[in-house]
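Hi there. Long-time user, first ticket. I'm pasting a complex I've been working with (about 436 residues overall). I'd like to know whether the download I got is complete or cut off, because the file seemed smaller than I expected. Thanks.
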Amino acid sequence: MKNMIDTAPETPPMPEPLSSSSESSRAETRRAQILAAAADCFRSHGFHGASIAQISKAAGMSAGHIYHYFDNKEAIIAAIVAQDLERFLSLTAGFRAARNVQEAMIGCVASGVEEKLDPATAGLKLEIVAEAARNPRVAEIVRDADRACRESLAETLRAVREASGHHDDDATLQALTEVMAAMFEGLLSRSIRNPDLDRDRVVRVFQTAMRDLMNQTP
Amino acid sequence: MKNMIDTAPETPPMPEPLSSSSESSRAETRRAQILAAAADCFRSHGFHGASIAQISKAAGMSAGHIYHYFDNKEAIIAAIVAQDLERFLSLTAGFRAARNVQEAMIGCVASGVEEKLDPATAGLKLEIVAEAARNPRVAEIVRDADRACRESLAETLRAVREASGHHDDDATLQALTEVMAAMFEGLLSRSIRNPDLDRDRVVRVFQTAMRDLMNQTP
DNA sequence: CATTCTAGATTGAACGCTCATTCTATGTTA
DNA sequence: TAACATAGAATGAGCGTTCAATCTAGAATG
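Hi, the file is complete. Here it is re-exported in full:
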């Protein structure tokens, strides 16, 4: 098929941080360059639509050189997914460590909603979950990370619920977790389907809904 | 270079009913075959991962013959998206016509949740929105249909809200609509990330959350 | 200090394959 | 016969991947 979607030019090679790498080795830097470039290409062309040639150009190196750092294209996908979900993991872990848990969560709704509604973020995350829907290896990575996130979030919710006198069993807590996750993940889709939505009002409705959700009596 | 401005309307040139064919014409049947086969292939391999050869094999015809019914691969994508979202449109329209609106909606939560959690459905719908995130033509179709759905759902919600004494402005109603949409669309992602979730409990939490959402005071 | 040595970094061409799409030729039907 | 349905080979581009050849820079050796 012809290239019908006129995309922004791939970012030119940026050969900045080669010398003076006292910290990370050159290999790590290169690897990170590839991952960043690949994330960009996957975002704008999809996993299968992005070619190694595109990625290598965006990363400022030859196509063949990519294979010094990754076994194949799928390994790049897996690394991006792992990286992305690790970030999410540490985020939720920090959440759980907050003192005033419920209000800390409510306070984070605004930034959380904004993040999910960012079209660039949304595009990549949707791409990842769409790939997980059909690629078993990606699915495994995604599910492992999601399990850890859910466990952390469920424990956080238990603290919130017990502070207001509710003592739930695990299954109920997990269902609460699922619905809360669905609400936020749904925003990824909303940002694509309706890019003009009123973010501030959505945040307010979201905050009320979150409060209701955490205080609902089963 | 890439002067593919080709904004051809996606509707086929409406092939005239060939003389006495009271049934659906052979062309329409063939077209439907292609669409069904393509939906299957897209679901399992993604838009870019599915080849015309695969699709034609699944549809029981030669690869070249596909091009008698569709200009190119992207036109197939667009037709599937249009078909899929038209179905959703008529569904919400029926919703709005219900008599006892709020309880009708709550009653439909169970089947709605089940539908979104079906992995095959979820895979295709995620594929569609992921493609919309990067393909402007698909995005336009998706957004047009979504707008109509939102308007219908917002009016339905207005009826619910006014029945319980709330008189909201359009912006508030639209925010409610957005959050409700996000909740359901988020299930698509959840069904991939956690295929083992407890559907029954999720339905119950969902129903309570929906009720709270519709009764929340801004 | 100058030199060889060496191992990793890097390239770019080449390979075999599959892709979307086109074209031509042959049924099929009315 | 005229018009459409269909197949299947042909085309040229682009794909992921491999690989032999070069470059580079520091360590080892003299």
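A couple of notes from our side: Chain B touches chain A through 66 residues (CB under 8 Å). Chain B has a mean pLDDT of 85.
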